[in-house]
Design a protein that fits this description.
- Helices cover about 40% and strands about 20% of the residues.
- It is an alpha/beta fold.
- It has one domain: Nucleoside phosphorylase domain (Rossmann fold), CATH 3.40.50.1580.
- Strands 5-8-7-6-9 form a five-stranded mixed beta barrel.
- Helix 3 packs parallel to helix 6 and helix 4 crosses helix 7.
- It is globular.
- The mean pLDDT is about 95.
């Protein structure tokens, strides 16, 4: 049994306090299998299907579904919040965390509504550097991605795999130099959280996976997401996206002890 130093004990107390304050839920309310989203629509659908109420913290909303033994957190947007959330979740030792996010499709053959299973993320954001050196690749937990792929296969749902680009730069679509760099990288999609989630998960030993939905095609003419397209995407594809996430965590629950990264200690 590892004995924590006084500094580690203080960090844990602060981290658990932040978790409760930011999410509005007590640490004991959380199930060890956690869905993440940054969209109110997904969160509201989850609460409706699970027939549960949610709690609001100072930053995030949280719902806990006893019927599924799954908690869901709506953490809003961006790498800083994503990294912080993984950091404070590490103190309740989740067995699996799965992010259901959206992305802009960069590959010319992608279509809106397709799923992407990221194999890695380009670290073009500032948060992950505080967790691990830049040389460390941002990779999801392989076992979660593998189970995700198996669930998608059973559901006969097609998906693409590849490297995604994570950025803090929200209005990049009108920056020609940035667009040129994206084309040279050959990333399949662009989004704002994956690399921070993966690196923070690696640093804090939190099993983390991601399934992304292509919500727009920003490199194409008239391809930038509008309010009309956004509403259509939510209504048409979010149900399947959410069901896939729940099914994946239910599959992981059947594994003894979930996915345990803490067996690998340095």
């Amino acid at each position: 049994m590892k004995i924590l130093s006084s500094e580690e004990n203080q960090r844990e107390r602060v981290g658990l306090g932040m978790l409760e304050r930011y999410t509005g839920s007590k640490q004991g309310d959380f199930f060890p299998y956690i869905l993440l989203t940054n969209f109110d629509y997904y969160f509201n659908v989850f609460c409706k299907k699970a027939k549960v109420r949610f709690t609001s913290g100072s930053v995030m909303d949280t719902a806990h579904a006893p019927s599924q033994e799954i908690s869901m957190i709506n953490f809003r947007m961006g790498a800083p919040t994503a990294g912080l959330l993984i950091d404070i979740l590490s103190y309740i030792k989740p067995r699996a965390v799965l992010m259901l996010g959206m992305c802009g499709g960069l590959h010319p053959k992608l279509q809106i509504g397709e799923f992407i299973l990221p194999m890695a993320a380009i670290r073009d954001e500032g948060t992950s550097a505080f967790y691990m050196p830049k040389e460390v690749p941002a990779l999801p937990t392989f076992r979660i991605q593998k189970i995700l792929s198996e669930v998608l296969g059973k559901m006969d749902t097609p998906y693409k795999t590849g490297v995604v680009h994570t950025t803090d730069y929200r209005f990049w679509e009108f920056d020609r130099e940035f667009r040129n760099r994206l084309e040279k990288e050959r990333a399949i999609a662009i989004e704002m959280e994956c690399s921070a989630l993966f690196i923070a998960g690696f640093r804090r030993k939190v099993p983390i996976g991601t399934l992304l939905l292509v919500s727009d095609l920003p490199l194409k003419k008239e391809g930038i997401k509008s309010q009309k397209i956004s509403t259509w995407v939510f209504e048409k594809f979010s149900g399947l996206h959410l069901d896939t996430g729940v099914r994946t965590l239910r599959e992981i629950q059947r594994l003894k002890g979930g996915i345990n990264l803490r067996q690998f200690q340095w």
